[in-house]
């Protein structure tokens, strides 16, 4: 196996999803921090590797892949001993894919990014109540997805859980999850946070993003 290098920064939920996958696969890798605020992702060298100049980015044997869901799926297909994290069964894989698309389009784009961009790029300090309501709407969908299952893809953990927990753990600082309202989601989050190395790999970075939000937000309007 060639050397794996993950480019990213810890507050980023997609980066943390990749780190959770790498850990679950017990893969050794180098982690290179990329300072987005300093423009380290917009250098000529970085853009040659990734024209979108985004993180996470994975380097494997001199080739580059970006977008967290693509990275997680690639890692499992290439390095996993079995298909537990990303099932080969067509239907089971479709369920995992749907959950990951939900994370990308709803949890990350509509919830996290929709709040973060005005705060960090337009220097706004107030968050409309409707954006918090959107988070709770997303929680309700996740509650329904889980149903009676332990994990989002069924009985066992998959890369969909890694992607979703990276975002949900970043949103709870803005919209706490009440066990009475979301019993399945609350229990799922407890299972995920209890995983080996969770705090180091995901929890600390999620708290960093929460702290960044709290430092900017003065009021929910």
Name the beta content range.
5-15%
Head-to-tail CA distance between termini: 52 Å
- Please mark out the parts with pLDDT under 50 across 5 or more consecutive residues, or reply none: none
Order of helices and strands: EHEHEEHHEHHHHE
Give helix % range.
Answer: 55-70%
Rg result: 17 Å
Q: Give a count of the beta strands, DSSP E runs of length 2 or more.
A: 6
Shape: globular
Structural classification: alpha/beta
Largest sheet: 4 strands, mixed
Mean pLDDT: 97
Strand order of the largest sheet: 2-1-3-4
Number of helices: 8
Structural description of this entry:
The chain is an alpha/beta fold. The protein has helices at 13-24, 44-49, 68-79, 90-121, 129-146, 159-171, 183-193, 198-216; strands at residues 4-8, 30-33, 57-60, 63-66, 126-127, 219-220. The protein has a four-stranded mixed beta sheet, covered by helices on one side. A two-stranded parallel ribbon has the order 5-6. GO terms for molecular function: glutathione transferase activity.
């Amino acid at each position: 196996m060639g050397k794996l290098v993950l480019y990213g920064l810890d507050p980023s939920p997609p980066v943390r999803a990749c780190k959770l996958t790498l850990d679950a696969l017990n893969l050794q890798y180098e982690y290179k921090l990329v300072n987005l605020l300093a423009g380290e992702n917009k250098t000529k060298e970085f853009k040659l590797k990734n024209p979108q100049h985004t993180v996470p980015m994975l380097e494997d044997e001199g080739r580059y892949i970006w977008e967290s869901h693509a990275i997680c799926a690639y890692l499992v297909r290439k390095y996993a001993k079995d298909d537990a994290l990303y099932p080969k069964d067509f239907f089971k894989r479709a369920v995992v894919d749907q959950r990951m698309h939900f994370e990308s389009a709803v949890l990350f784009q509509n919830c996290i990014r929709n709040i973060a961009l005005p705060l960090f790029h337009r220097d706004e300090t107030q968050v409309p109540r409707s954006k918090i309501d959107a988070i709770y709407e997303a929680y309700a969908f996740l509650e329904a997805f889980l149903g009676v299952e332990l994990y989002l893809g069924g009985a066992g953990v998959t890369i969909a859980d890694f992607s979703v927990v990276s975002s949900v753990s970043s949103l709870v600082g803005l919209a706490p999850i009440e066990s009475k309202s979301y019993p399945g989601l609350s229990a799922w989050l407890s299972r995920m946070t209890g995983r080996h190395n969770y705090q180091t790999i995901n929890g600390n970075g999620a708290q960093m993003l929460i702290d960044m939000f709290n430092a900017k937000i003065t009021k929910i309007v």
